[in-house]
User: Fold ABC transporter from Paenibacillus borealis.
Amino acid sequence: MNQVQKKRSVQDKGSYAIEAHGLVKTYGSNRAVDGVDLKVGTGMIYGVLGPNGAGKTTVIRMLATLLRPDAGSARIFGHDVVKEPQIVRQLIGVTGQYASVDESLSATENLIIFSRLLGLGRAESRNKAEELLEEFGLTEAAKRPLKNFSGGMRRRLDLAASLIAQPPLIFLDEPTTGLDPRTRNQMWDTIRRLVNTGSTVLLTTQYLEEADQLADRIAVIDTGKVVAEGTVDELKASVGNSSLHLKVLNPKDMGNARLIVERVLQVRSNVSAESAKIMAPMGDVDRVTDLLVALREAGISLLEMSVQKPTLDEVFLTLTGDGVKEEAGYASGSAKNKEGVLA
Ligand SMILES: Nc1ncnc2c1ncn2[C@@H]1O[C@H](COP(=O)(O)OP(=O)(O)OP(=O)(O)O)[C@@H](O)[C@H]1O
Ligand SMILES: [Mg+2]
Assistant:
């Protein structure tokens, strides 16, 4: 059976690529995953979004048979991850799983070896390697040994290796963390292409913009629980149809301006720390006039004001609470990679 036939035949078995009920994983007294339900239809990009330590990677590891759940169950294309792990493993790909690339070999050699191991012929392996190196912008570096690769280049090679077989379901755990913007855009195109050619993708991301751009549906996870689920538009609508964005001219007026916003609009506001912008949901757009009058009476000058559709940042702040997450890099899509290095 070739890959395409394999994909079709597994997808006929059930309408869901992933179906999880009540997944739990406990580490000591820490319920890292605390009863997660997920339903991911075939042929879509599903985004899992959450702050550091929310439990995203732990969920993926359970779905990918790398970690046994303490409670609950999960099926991949209808196959139970605990009872049928061998079948499940044939249907999935996980980035990071080929960490054992050979340092002394070149990128081309590594990819050819992976292809051969997966049963591709000699010529086919060479073509596949060239194709992937081209796609991931590694052609220039292809002949150099891996020990001279930068972190970003390694990440790209790692993803390239995991895509040789193009399995029906692909888990991408923060696929673009640490990549420069140009490579990130290439990666987005690759992910879209994977779905257009029949795969289902579940990806976790630190970048709200990435989820907004790529995901058909999103689950927001916080402290081991799914706190919201839906399409991007549904999630945005859940925090109100319009939202106020406001910047004050003088930073010392921030606190006071925020109090006035909350008093006049009768809502809670959020502040994006980095850009010093006050954001608040708006039920009634007419209130803007009252707000402007109140701000002028308080002697507060504005730098910028707009009323717009909520951003995914606001959804995220509203759902997972204010403040703390901004330090983790959620303000205005300014997430940094965990190592704090640029590729
Ligand atoms: N092997 C382990 N032993 C003990 N605790 C763990 C282990 N793996 C994860 N945890 C804990 O489980 C919780 C969830 O971790 P997890 O890695 O799933 O979060 P995450 O959402 O992927 O976070 P990040 O965005 O930082 O990747 C955290 O509190 C973490 O410290
Ligand atoms: Mg993680």
